[in-house]
Amino acid sequence: MNFDKLQEQWNQENNEVSLPQNLDKIKEAHNPIDKVRRNMKFDLISQAVLTVLIGFVPYAKRNEWDFQSISIFALFYVLMLGFMLYYTLKFYRFYKQSYNLSYDSRKNLMWFAYELRLFIELYRALTFIMMFLGMALGLYFGMHFNTTGQDIFHLKDADFLKLFGVLFFMVAFLLALVVLFMEFVINHYYGKYYKKIKNILNQLDEE
Q: Which spans are transmembrane here (predicted)?
């Protein structure tokens, strides 16, 4: 048997073997996926710490708050915890499950992109819920700890309209700032990576 010829044939066969063209594109998705998971871990820890710190607000103001104030705060805090718990469970389930898949196939990339999209929408919804709860609580305490000595519900019509106009403008301005800021945060931490993964999937569909 001519081993030199066998060796030559083996080398030729090895040179002819090529990886699928889309394998490189699939591997490109690993980087944004890793960054998304890193941001999710940071987000989970920071929100847990922030939620605990908010719970200590009445203790810091215990000399100024009466029983009614503490009760209202406790009600809003329980509502906030309920929404946060629901969000965190889904958040953690997605985070853990993302490590159980190998992202070397288009199917798994599609799963991650779909779940990430749902996560972003849930994140956005939770942000709006927390924002309105915070504004409602702030409005209550603003009226409860009114230091001007004036009852805003018994003002003259002209004065009340002026005050209402100022409050409406402030609330609308704060709402716009919060919405813009949160959209920036969502896009910075998750949205731009979702677009990268989606773009890779679109390229795979074209091949």
A: 44-61, 67-89, 122-143, 163-186
